[in-house]
Amino acid sequence: MKMILTIIFRLTVSCLIAGTIMGTTFVFTNKAKKANEHAREEKVMYALLGYGAGQEPDEGTALHEIFRYIVADGDSQSIGYLLPAGHHGEEAGFVFVQLSLEGDFVSKTAIPLSEEKAREQGDRDNAVQTALGSSQIARFVDQVMVVTEDGSRQAYLLSGKFPGYKTNISIILALDPAYSIIGFEVMEHEEDPGLGAEIEQDYFKNQFKHKPLEKIKQLQVVKEPLPDEYYNALEGKLELAAAEQIMLQYSDNDIYAITGSTISSDAVTSGIRGMTKKFAYRLDTLEKVLEAQQIGVPF
Amino acid sequence: MATDKSSLQLVANGILKENPIFKLALSMCPAVGISTTVINGLMLGTAVLFVQVFSSVTISLLKNFIHPRIRIPTYTLTIATWVTVIDLSLAAYFPAAYAKMGIFVKIIVAFAIITMRLEMFACKEPVKSSFWDGLGMGLGFMVGMVVIGFVRELLGSGAILGYDVLGFKPLLFFILPSAGFFVVGLMMGFFNWIETYYAERKKR
Q1: How far, in Å, CA of A176 to CA of B134, rounded?
Q2: Residue of B58, B75, B81 to mutate when probing chain A, most A C-beta within 10 A
Q3: In a mutagenesis test of the A interface, which of B85, B94, B118 is the best target, namely the one with the most A β-carbons within 10 Å?
Q4: Which letter does DSSP use for residue A192 in this model?
Q5: Residue B6 in this model has a pLDDT that exceeds 90
Q6: Chain A residues 82-141 with CB within 8 Å of chain B
Q7: Which residues in chain B have their CB less than 8 angstroms from residue A194's CB?
Q8: CA–CA separation, A75 and A106 (whole Å)
Q9: Cβ distance B124 to B63 under 8 Å?
Q10: Is residue A259 scored above 90 in pLDDT?
């Protein structure tokens, strides 16, 4: 009996020491890691929009963020969008627009919030909650970015997460105003190197480029070998004009699965399909309401 | 039971006489899988060096506290702790290297060489010699990885440290995992040959 207790005691103490060391390291490194991730995210976003390394975006380019909340009021639920208010060029804080699940307008609340504060989740959630009062509970779901150049829309940037073969795959997806895919970048994944990890490669990623919304809605993967000319075009091994030609030729095709990684390929394809479809639906609904209620937004 | 070897002897022992890869043939999986370039070998070698030294010192410090019947879980816990610390630090301060190495750093938890050194050496010896032994073993592993990486990078992609030195790729085969076995085997033979050569010469 005494032996059992000694063993338990000593193992517990060892675990506690180990836990303390790991926890301390985590606290110290987490901030630096977050900053790294943020820097990378920004870089990826600009790269998706076509700005190379070190290249500054044009002066007229602006990013507007739309934050989506789910608001619970007793048993009923509604969707809330936190939008920057005012037409292009005006600074008018934020507005919180609530829609019912069917997409009808419910209410509109002005929220005094600066852009910097809106980026901090804690501050933002507090501001929304205060404006709504205590009877309703708002829960943050996701955010999208609308990129405008001199007031006209250039692109949408969506970050999303979906289950891959092993853990979640998180990506940033860029769509143009007609919801065709500009491109996407894998931010985080734990697929097998040499197999599922090939989703990061150009020959897979670029297959999604320029696919129109109608095609995305029923995008599938096919288990067929990738044609050589298409592969060369996707990998950027051909001249630009020739590559464009081939890309155009295949733009109506489904996605060629990565050999040996059908599940990963399928996960990315259906993830992107879901993200695009839902986003297009949500934005269309939101815009209808904004127009009907004459709520001005800068995008 | 303290070892009678000096610190220098302990370090040399890890690099030459009991080199983890070429003499003990432990942790062959990373030696074969990751050592495709000098840089990869160096980065993983450095990570292993830190984990080995920290774990050896920790176990040596705690050797009277650890219950002998449950020493294996404690070893695993110690190694896992230091691997996590190194993993988190790399992710925070060397993001570029971590993007390439991240998945392999976590595997260090299961490296045979580290557990083996804790069991054979650190749990019996004083802290100071454990430190030197850990350093020697870590350096031995690092040297092994770099040497294998050098051969494979030179023969496989015709480059050293990413710089194209040959101008052509002699044998693409050396980049592939299976070639790792060939390089390790040849190196082992080479090490043994040198050893017997010197032993013969001493006799004469």
Answers
A1: 56
A2: B81
A3: B85
A4: P
A5: no
A6: none
A7: none
A8: 16
A9: yes
A10: no
**Single-letter code of the amino acid located at A100:** S
Q: Can you give the pLDDT at residue B81?
A: 93
Instruction: Identify the CA nearest to B132 among candidates B7, B4, B5.
Output: B7
Alpha carbons B53 and B136: distance in angstroms, whole number:
9
Query: B74 CB near a chain A CB, below 8 Å?
Result: yes
Contact A132, A108 (CB under 8 A): no
Amino acid (one-letter) located at A207? Q
Burial A242-271 (b: 16+ CB within 10 A, else e): ebeebbeebeeebbbbbeebebbbbbbbeb
As a whole number of Å, the end-to-end CA separation of chain A is 72
Domain-wise residue ranges, chain A: 61-143, 154-282
- Contact residues, chain A, for B70 at CB < 8 Å: 7, 10-11
Residue A269 reports pLDDT greater than 80? yes
Asked if B105 and B80 touch (Cβ cutoff 8 Å), the reply is no
A10:B84 CB<8 A = no
Percent of chain A that is helix, strand, coil (3-state, to 5): 45, 25, 30
What ipTM describes this predicted complex? 0.77
Which of A21-30, A245-254, B91-100, B168-177 bottoms out in mean pLDDT, i.e. has the lowest? B168-177
Question: pLDDT tens-digit profile of B27-45?
Answer: 787 778 777 788 888 888 8
Q: How far is CA A4 from CA A13, A85, B70, B72, in A?
A: 14, 66, 11, 16
Residue with tokens 């069917």: A102
* Higher per-residue pLDDT: A51 or A22: A22
**How high does pLDDT run on average in chain A?**
84
Chain A CA closest to residue B95: A36
A40 contacts B65? CB cut-off 8 A: no
Residue B54 has pLDDT above 90, yes or no: yes
Identity of the residue in A11, A15, A26 whose CB atom sits nearest the CB atom of B88: A26
3-state secondary structure of B22: coil
* CA-based nearest residue in chain A for residue B71: A11
Distances (CA, A) of A169 to A239, A277, B159: 32, 18, 34
Q: For residues B86 and B23, give the distance between their C-alpha atoms in angstroms, rounded to a whole number.
A: 27
CB atoms within 10 A of CB A154: 20
Rounded Cα gap, residues A293 and A153, in angstroms: 21
Query: Mean per-residue pLDDT for B78-104?
Result: 85
- Chain B residue with CA closest to A188: the answer is B99
The pLDDT score that the predictor gives to residue B83 is 92
> Is the sign of the CA dihedral B73, B78, B81, B82 positive or negative?
negative
